[in-house]
Amino acid sequence: MTEHFFHEYLKDYQPFKAYWNYEDGCVLLGCIRMYKATGDEAYAEFVLNYLSERIMPDGSIPSYPVQQYALDSFHCSKALYFAADQTGEPRYERAIRWQAAQISQHPRTKSGMIWHKGIYPHQVWIDGVYMAAPFYAEYANRTGQDDIYSEIGNWFAFLRDHLRDPETGLYYHALDEEKAQPWADSETGLSASFWLRGEGWFLMALTDTLARLPETQSALHHLLAEMLRSAAESLMRYRSTGGLFCQVIDKPALSGNYTETSGSLMAAYALMRGAALHVLPAAMYDTGAEILRNIKMQKLRRSSDGILLTDICGAAGLGGPNGRDGSTAYYLSETRTGNDPKGVGVLMSAEAVCMLHRAGADTDKIRRHA
Predict the structure, then answer these.
(1) Average pLDDT, the chain
(2) pTM for the full model?
(3) How far apart are CA 351 and CA 109, in angstroms?
(4) pLDDT tens digits, residue range 87-103?
(5) Got the DSSP string for 272-322?
(6) How does DSSP classify residue 338?
(7) Which residues contact 170 (CB under 8 A, 6 or more apart)?
(8) Which domains does the chain have, with CATH numbers?
(9) DSSP readout, 110-164?
Protein backbone atom coordinates (compact mmCIF):
# COMPACT_ATOMS: atom_id res chain seq x y z
CA MET A 1 0.00 0.00 0.00
CA THR A 2 2.77 2.47 0.88
CA GLU A 3 4.63 2.26 -2.42
CA HIS A 4 1.38 2.67 -4.35
CA PHE A 5 0.62 5.66 -2.15
CA PHE A 6 4.05 7.17 -2.82
CA HIS A 7 3.71 6.87 -6.59
CA GLU A 8 0.23 8.38 -6.55
CA TYR A 9 1.43 11.19 -4.31
CA LEU A 10 4.38 12.04 -6.56
CA LYS A 11 2.27 11.93 -9.70
CA ASP A 12 0.12 14.80 -8.45
CA TYR A 13 2.76 16.62 -6.38
CA GLN A 14 2.95 20.38 -6.62
CA PRO A 15 5.85 22.34 -5.06
CA PHE A 16 4.86 23.40 -1.55
CA LYS A 17 6.12 26.96 -2.11
CA ALA A 18 7.28 28.96 -5.09
CA TYR A 19 10.76 29.31 -3.60
CA TRP A 20 13.41 26.81 -2.39
CA ASN A 21 11.79 25.27 0.69
CA TYR A 22 12.24 22.57 3.29
CA GLU A 23 8.85 20.96 2.73
CA ASP A 24 9.82 19.96 -0.79
CA GLY A 25 13.13 18.84 0.69
CA CYS A 26 11.31 16.26 2.82
CA VAL A 27 9.87 14.70 -0.34
CA LEU A 28 13.15 14.88 -2.27
CA LEU A 29 15.07 13.09 0.49
CA GLY A 30 12.30 10.55 0.86
CA CYS A 31 12.51 9.82 -2.87
CA ILE A 32 16.29 9.51 -2.78
CA ARG A 33 16.06 7.02 0.05
CA MET A 34 13.29 5.02 -1.61
CA TYR A 35 15.35 4.91 -4.82
CA LYS A 36 18.36 3.58 -2.93
CA ALA A 37 16.20 1.01 -1.16
CA THR A 38 14.21 -0.17 -4.19
CA GLY A 39 16.10 0.81 -7.34
CA ASP A 40 12.85 2.21 -8.73
CA GLU A 41 13.92 4.84 -11.26
CA ALA A 42 10.70 6.81 -10.81
CA TYR A 43 11.98 8.14 -7.50
CA ALA A 44 15.29 9.30 -8.98
CA GLU A 45 13.52 10.87 -11.94
CA PHE A 46 11.28 12.88 -9.64
CA VAL A 47 14.29 14.33 -7.81
CA LEU A 48 16.32 15.08 -10.93
CA ASN A 49 13.38 16.66 -12.73
CA TYR A 50 12.71 18.89 -9.73
CA LEU A 51 16.32 20.03 -9.47
CA SER A 52 17.06 20.39 -13.18
CA GLU A 53 14.37 23.08 -13.45
CA ARG A 54 15.85 25.10 -10.58
CA ILE A 55 19.64 24.87 -10.83
CA MET A 56 21.27 27.11 -13.43
CA PRO A 57 24.48 26.16 -15.35
CA ASP A 58 26.54 28.43 -13.09
CA GLY A 59 25.15 26.68 -9.98
CA SER A 60 22.90 29.54 -8.95
CA ILE A 61 19.41 28.86 -7.64
CA PRO A 62 17.12 31.74 -8.66
CA SER A 63 14.35 30.55 -6.34
CA TYR A 64 16.67 30.40 -3.32
CA PRO A 65 15.63 33.17 -0.86
CA VAL A 66 19.09 34.52 -0.06
CA GLN A 67 17.96 37.55 1.90
CA GLN A 68 15.77 35.48 4.21
CA TYR A 69 18.84 33.90 5.84
CA ALA A 70 16.66 30.87 6.54
CA LEU A 71 18.19 27.64 7.80
CA ASP A 72 15.10 25.88 6.46
CA SER A 73 16.43 26.35 2.93
CA PHE A 74 19.35 23.97 3.44
CA HIS A 75 17.11 20.94 3.75
CA CYS A 76 16.22 21.02 0.05
CA SER A 77 19.91 21.53 -0.76
CA LYS A 78 20.80 18.08 0.60
CA ALA A 79 19.37 16.61 -2.61
CA LEU A 80 22.10 18.38 -4.62
CA TYR A 81 24.62 15.72 -3.57
CA PHE A 82 22.46 13.01 -5.10
CA ALA A 83 22.07 14.98 -8.33
CA ALA A 84 25.81 15.60 -8.54
CA ASP A 85 26.58 11.91 -8.07
CA GLN A 86 23.87 10.70 -10.43
CA THR A 87 24.48 13.08 -13.31
CA GLY A 88 28.06 14.32 -12.98
CA GLU A 89 26.83 17.73 -14.10
CA PRO A 90 29.13 20.53 -12.84
CA ARG A 91 26.20 22.82 -12.04
CA TYR A 92 25.26 20.68 -9.04
CA GLU A 93 28.77 20.81 -7.57
CA ARG A 94 28.75 24.57 -8.10
CA ALA A 95 25.39 24.83 -6.34
CA ILE A 96 26.72 22.82 -3.40
CA ARG A 97 29.72 25.12 -3.02
CA TRP A 98 27.48 28.17 -3.27
CA GLN A 99 25.15 26.79 -0.61
CA ALA A 100 28.03 26.03 1.75
CA ALA A 101 29.17 29.64 1.36
CA GLN A 102 25.73 30.77 2.50
CA ILE A 103 26.32 29.10 5.87
CA SER A 104 29.55 31.04 6.39
CA GLN A 105 27.63 34.27 5.71
CA HIS A 106 24.67 33.42 7.94
CA PRO A 107 24.10 35.76 10.93
CA ARG A 108 25.31 34.45 14.30
CA THR A 109 24.17 35.03 17.85
CA LYS A 110 26.58 36.30 20.49
CA SER A 111 27.36 32.69 21.44
CA GLY A 112 28.17 31.79 17.84
CA MET A 113 24.96 29.96 16.95
CA ILE A 114 23.39 30.66 13.57
CA TRP A 115 20.06 32.46 13.61
CA HIS A 116 17.08 30.41 12.60
CA LYS A 117 15.97 33.09 10.13
CA GLY A 118 16.70 36.71 9.43
CA ILE A 119 13.23 37.62 10.68
CA TYR A 120 13.97 35.81 13.97
CA PRO A 121 17.15 37.56 15.12
CA HIS A 122 19.21 36.06 17.97
CA GLN A 123 16.92 33.01 18.05
CA VAL A 124 17.98 29.36 17.97
CA TRP A 125 15.25 26.89 16.98
CA ILE A 126 15.65 23.15 17.48
CA ASP A 127 14.77 22.31 13.87
CA GLY A 128 17.53 24.54 12.48
CA VAL A 129 20.26 22.02 13.27
CA TYR A 130 18.46 19.39 11.21
CA MET A 131 18.20 21.69 8.22
CA ALA A 132 21.87 22.68 8.20
CA ALA A 133 24.09 20.17 10.02
CA PRO A 134 23.72 17.08 7.76
CA PHE A 135 24.22 19.23 4.66
CA TYR A 136 27.34 20.83 6.16
CA ALA A 137 28.72 17.52 7.44
CA GLU A 138 28.41 16.02 3.95
CA TYR A 139 30.19 19.05 2.55
CA ALA A 140 33.03 18.60 5.04
CA ASN A 141 33.20 14.91 4.22
CA ARG A 142 33.55 15.60 0.49
CA THR A 143 35.94 18.54 0.70
CA GLY A 144 38.09 17.52 3.69
CA GLN A 145 37.43 20.79 5.51
CA ASP A 146 37.72 19.39 9.02
CA ASP A 147 37.17 22.76 10.70
CA ILE A 148 33.50 22.43 9.73
CA TYR A 149 33.13 19.50 12.10
CA SER A 150 34.15 21.70 15.02
CA GLU A 151 31.39 24.16 14.25
CA ILE A 152 28.85 21.37 13.92
CA GLY A 153 29.94 20.00 17.27
CA ASN A 154 29.48 23.42 18.83
CA TRP A 155 25.94 23.63 17.44
CA PHE A 156 24.91 20.33 19.00
CA ALA A 157 26.68 20.96 22.30
CA PHE A 158 24.93 24.32 22.60
CA LEU A 159 21.53 22.70 22.11
CA ARG A 160 22.33 20.08 24.75
CA ASP A 161 23.52 22.68 27.22
CA HIS A 162 20.80 25.30 26.66
CA LEU A 163 17.66 23.74 25.14
CA ARG A 164 17.54 20.39 26.95
CA ASP A 165 15.31 20.19 30.01
CA PRO A 166 17.24 18.25 32.67
CA GLU A 167 14.08 16.94 34.33
CA THR A 168 12.40 15.37 31.28
CA GLY A 169 15.37 15.06 28.92
CA LEU A 170 13.23 16.69 26.22
CA TYR A 171 14.29 19.68 24.13
CA TYR A 172 12.45 22.99 24.02
CA HIS A 173 11.41 24.39 20.66
CA ALA A 174 13.58 27.49 20.76
CA LEU A 175 15.76 29.94 22.66
CA ASP A 176 15.93 33.70 22.33
CA GLU A 177 19.41 34.74 23.45
CA GLU A 178 18.25 38.34 23.90
CA LYS A 179 15.27 37.19 26.04
CA ALA A 180 13.25 39.86 24.26
CA GLN A 181 10.53 37.84 22.54
CA PRO A 182 7.10 37.60 24.19
CA TRP A 183 7.31 33.79 24.03
CA ALA A 184 10.71 33.66 25.73
CA ASP A 185 11.11 33.02 29.46
CA SER A 186 12.53 36.17 31.06
CA GLU A 187 15.27 34.24 32.87
CA THR A 188 16.22 31.45 30.46
CA GLY A 189 15.05 32.79 27.10
CA LEU A 190 13.44 29.42 26.38
CA SER A 191 10.05 28.77 24.83
CA ALA A 192 7.44 27.09 26.99
CA SER A 193 6.61 23.70 25.51
CA PHE A 194 7.92 20.43 24.09
CA TRP A 195 6.67 20.18 20.52
CA LEU A 196 6.84 16.72 18.97
CA ARG A 197 8.02 17.62 15.48
CA GLY A 198 10.74 19.83 16.95
CA GLU A 199 11.99 16.81 18.91
CA GLY A 200 11.69 14.73 15.74
CA TRP A 201 13.77 17.13 13.67
CA PHE A 202 16.42 17.01 16.37
CA LEU A 203 16.54 13.20 16.49
CA MET A 204 16.94 13.08 12.71
CA ALA A 205 19.63 15.75 12.86
CA LEU A 206 21.63 13.46 15.14
CA THR A 207 21.24 10.32 13.03
CA ASP A 208 21.80 12.00 9.68
CA THR A 209 24.88 13.86 10.88
CA LEU A 210 26.30 10.74 12.52
CA ALA A 211 25.93 8.88 9.23
CA ARG A 212 28.17 11.42 7.51
CA LEU A 213 31.09 11.45 9.96
CA PRO A 214 34.40 9.93 8.91
CA GLU A 215 36.26 7.66 11.33
CA THR A 216 38.67 10.49 12.13
CA GLN A 217 35.86 12.41 13.87
CA SER A 218 35.66 10.07 16.86
CA ALA A 219 35.10 12.83 19.44
CA LEU A 220 32.19 14.31 17.51
CA HIS A 221 30.78 10.84 16.90
CA HIS A 222 30.90 10.16 20.63
CA LEU A 223 29.15 13.45 21.44
CA LEU A 224 26.33 12.91 18.96
CA ALA A 225 25.93 9.24 19.85
CA GLU A 226 25.55 10.06 23.55
CA MET A 227 23.05 12.80 22.74
CA LEU A 228 21.03 10.48 20.50
CA ARG A 229 20.88 7.74 23.11
CA SER A 230 19.81 10.19 25.80
CA ALA A 231 17.21 11.93 23.63
CA ALA A 232 15.73 8.63 22.39
CA GLU A 233 15.45 7.20 25.89
CA SER A 234 13.83 10.39 27.17
CA LEU A 235 11.25 10.49 24.38
CA MET A 236 10.29 6.86 24.90
CA ARG A 237 8.95 7.69 28.37
CA TYR A 238 6.11 9.60 26.70
CA ARG A 239 4.95 7.01 24.20
CA SER A 240 1.15 6.77 24.10
CA THR A 241 -0.90 3.63 24.63
CA GLY A 242 -1.37 3.53 20.85
CA GLY A 243 2.38 3.39 20.40
CA LEU A 244 2.84 6.91 18.99
CA PHE A 245 3.69 10.33 20.47
CA CYS A 246 1.54 13.38 21.15
CA GLN A 247 1.75 16.82 19.58
CA VAL A 248 2.64 18.27 23.01
CA ILE A 249 4.92 15.47 24.10
CA ASP A 250 4.74 15.55 27.87
CA LYS A 251 0.99 16.17 28.26
CA PRO A 252 -0.73 13.16 26.68
CA ALA A 253 -3.82 13.52 28.90
CA LEU A 254 -4.38 17.17 27.98
CA SER A 255 -7.72 17.83 26.34
CA GLY A 256 -7.27 18.30 22.60
CA ASN A 257 -3.84 16.70 22.51
CA TYR A 258 -3.44 14.06 19.81
CA THR A 259 -0.94 11.58 18.43
CA GLU A 260 0.81 13.52 15.69
CA THR A 261 1.99 11.70 12.59
CA SER A 262 5.06 13.55 11.30
CA GLY A 263 6.87 13.70 14.63
CA SER A 264 6.08 10.06 15.37
CA LEU A 265 7.48 9.11 11.96
CA MET A 266 10.62 11.12 12.64
CA ALA A 267 11.09 9.21 15.88
CA ALA A 268 10.56 5.90 14.05
CA TYR A 269 13.11 6.85 11.39
CA ALA A 270 15.70 8.00 13.93
CA LEU A 271 15.32 4.91 16.13
CA MET A 272 15.66 2.53 13.19
CA ARG A 273 18.53 4.35 11.56
CA GLY A 274 20.31 4.93 14.87
CA ALA A 275 20.14 1.20 15.62
CA ALA A 276 21.26 0.30 12.09
CA LEU A 277 24.31 2.52 12.60
CA HIS A 278 25.03 0.65 15.86
CA VAL A 279 24.61 3.83 17.89
CA LEU A 280 21.32 2.81 19.53
CA PRO A 281 20.63 -0.66 20.97
CA ALA A 282 19.29 -3.19 18.48
CA ALA A 283 15.97 -3.26 20.35
CA MET A 284 15.44 0.36 19.36
CA TYR A 285 15.17 -0.76 15.74
CA ASP A 286 12.24 -2.97 16.66
CA THR A 287 10.61 -0.10 18.52
CA GLY A 288 11.01 2.22 15.54
CA ALA A 289 9.62 -0.41 13.18
CA GLU A 290 6.65 -0.88 15.50
CA ILE A 291 5.96 2.87 15.49
CA LEU A 292 6.10 2.81 11.69
CA ARG A 293 3.61 -0.07 11.58
CA ASN A 294 1.32 1.79 13.98
CA ILE A 295 1.41 4.86 11.77
CA LYS A 296 0.43 2.83 8.73
CA MET A 297 -2.38 1.14 10.64
CA GLN A 298 -3.73 4.21 12.44
CA LYS A 299 -2.96 7.19 10.22
CA LEU A 300 -2.81 5.91 6.63
CA ARG A 301 -6.37 5.70 5.39
CA ARG A 302 -8.25 5.17 2.17
CA SER A 303 -10.73 7.86 1.21
CA SER A 304 -12.83 8.79 -1.80
CA ASP A 305 -9.89 10.93 -2.94
CA GLY A 306 -7.33 8.15 -2.56
CA ILE A 307 -4.92 7.29 0.25
CA LEU A 308 -4.49 9.91 2.96
CA LEU A 309 -1.81 10.23 5.62
CA THR A 310 -3.67 12.00 8.43
CA ASP A 311 -3.04 13.97 11.65
CA ILE A 312 -0.03 15.97 10.48
CA CYS A 313 0.55 19.31 12.18
CA GLY A 314 0.38 21.75 9.28
CA ALA A 315 2.82 24.27 10.73
CA ALA A 316 4.11 25.60 14.03
CA GLY A 317 6.46 28.38 15.00
CA LEU A 318 7.05 31.16 17.47
CA GLY A 319 6.36 34.88 17.38
CA GLY A 320 5.68 36.62 14.12
CA PRO A 321 2.53 38.54 13.15
CA ASN A 322 0.28 35.78 14.49
CA GLY A 323 1.70 36.12 17.99
CA ARG A 324 2.55 32.44 18.39
CA ASP A 325 3.29 32.21 22.10
CA GLY A 326 4.67 28.67 22.42
CA SER A 327 2.02 27.58 24.90
CA THR A 328 0.46 24.13 24.84
CA ALA A 329 -2.79 25.78 23.74
CA TYR A 330 -0.98 27.32 20.79
CA TYR A 331 0.44 24.00 19.54
CA LEU A 332 -2.95 22.37 19.82
CA SER A 333 -4.58 25.23 17.91
CA GLU A 334 -2.52 24.66 14.76
CA THR A 335 -4.36 22.96 11.92
CA ARG A 336 -4.14 19.21 11.49
CA THR A 337 -3.82 18.26 7.84
CA GLY A 338 -3.34 15.26 5.58
CA ASN A 339 -0.68 14.33 3.00
CA ASP A 340 1.55 17.18 4.06
CA PRO A 341 5.09 16.66 2.71
CA LYS A 342 6.51 16.89 6.22
CA GLY A 343 4.69 13.65 6.93
CA VAL A 344 4.77 11.86 3.58
CA GLY A 345 8.44 12.59 2.93
CA VAL A 346 9.46 11.21 6.31
CA LEU A 347 7.21 8.18 5.79
CA MET A 348 9.25 7.51 2.63
CA SER A 349 12.49 7.84 4.60
CA ALA A 350 11.33 5.54 7.39
CA GLU A 351 9.97 2.98 4.94
CA ALA A 352 13.31 2.99 3.08
CA VAL A 353 15.28 2.22 6.25
CA CYS A 354 12.87 -0.60 7.01
CA MET A 355 13.23 -2.02 3.48
CA LEU A 356 17.01 -1.95 3.65
CA HIS A 357 16.94 -3.72 7.00
CA ARG A 358 14.60 -6.42 5.73
CA ALA A 359 16.85 -6.92 2.73
CA GLY A 360 19.80 -7.50 5.05
CA ALA A 361 21.70 -4.38 4.01
CA ASP A 362 24.93 -3.84 5.93
CA THR A 363 25.60 -0.80 8.07
CA ASP A 364 27.67 0.91 5.39
CA LYS A 365 24.82 0.78 2.87
CA ILE A 366 22.36 2.13 5.43
CA ARG A 367 24.88 4.85 6.29
CA ARG A 368 25.01 5.91 2.64
CA HIS A 369 21.28 5.72 1.98
CA ALA A 370 20.97 9.51 2.04
Answers:
(1) 95
(2) 0.97
(3) 37
(4) 999 999 999 999 999 99
(5) HHHHHTTSS-HHHHHHHHHHHHHHHHHTEEEETTEEEE--EE----SBTTT
(6) S
(7) 164, 194, 199, 234, 235, 238, 249, 250
(8) 2-367 (1.50.10.10)
(9) TTSPBPSBTTBTTEEETTHHHHHHHHHHHHHHHHT-THHHHHHHHHHHHHHHHTB
